[in-house]
Amino acid sequence: MQSPFPGMDPYLERREIWRSFHYTLAQEIMAELNLIIGERYYADVETRTVLEEGGILIGEIYPDAAVMERRPSARALTPTVAIPDAPVQRPAIMPERVKLWSVRIYEIGEERLVTAIEILSPVNKRGKGLETYSLKRRRLLLSSVHLVELDLLRGGQRPAIEVNNPPIDADYIALVNRYRADVQRISAIWPVAINQMLPVIPIPLLPPDQDAPLDLGKIFRSVYARAAYARRIDYSQPVPPPKLRPAMEEWWAERQRKTVDN
Fold first, then answer.
1. Phi, psi of 57 (to 5 degrees)
2. Which residue of 84, 129, 155, 170 pairs with 57 in a disulfide if CB–CB is 3.0 to 4.6 A?
């Protein structure tokens, strides 16, 4: 069974589903790129782990970080003293580990980063997480790396200034910003509504190689089927926040009515 939406499915934005979708989407993009980018390159998935508390980014976990446990030293036993329990005991709110995935294209041999494909997650679009990602984005734009940005979330703030000024009225954004020496960088932007198909976007490589065409709609359909989202999502429930734009709310209501009538 296919999604009832022609392109991105807003029901996948639910917190308990998004992480699965984010991971599977990154893996599918990597696999598709490795079929089409040629022998000069390879695509790989990059993973970062961050800490969230109450939906707010509070830190990042680095691979070399460790917690050391001290073994108790042998010492003489001392008489125990009964200590009364605290009058109030409540569960501690523990930081949650959240994995973020992106796709990278490298030149073989040189191991040179050619193209960064960022798949935005909720943590990239609010608070400290937005600040951290915006800094990372600026560094990429100041480098010789091509930047591809996929924002398949309606909520939060879009980090790209060129998307916000003036604002683009869309549910989702695909953006391609290619590096050209001594030329101002221009962002090619594909605005997408929930009632539209996802586009085919160009993935820039090194000259003289041509762009690789990445069919986001094909990739989405593969991910949707592989993860069995059709039997995991109850489409009779309201669309997850944020609220749909009025035109899209009307379109979805009409689509549901037609489904019931049939």
1. -65, 130
2. 129
Q: What is the pTM of this model?
A: 0.85
pLDDT at residue 203 is higher than 80? yes
Q: Verify cis geometry, omega within 30 degrees of 0, for the bond prior to 166.
A: yes
pLDDT in tens, 116-155: 999 999 989 988 889 999 999 999 999 999 999 999 999 9
How would DSSP label each residue in 112-179?
EEEEEEEE--GGGGSHHHHHHHHHHHHHHHTTT-EEEEEE--SSS----HHHHTTBP--SEEEEEE--
Residues contacting residue 13 through CB under 8 Å, at least 6 positions apart:
152, 153, 154, 155, 240
CB atoms within 10 A of CB 137: 19
pLDDT tens for each residue of 175-187: 999 998 888 899 9
187, 175, 178, 134: which is closest to 151 by C-alpha?
175
* CB contact at 8 A, 220 and 7: yes
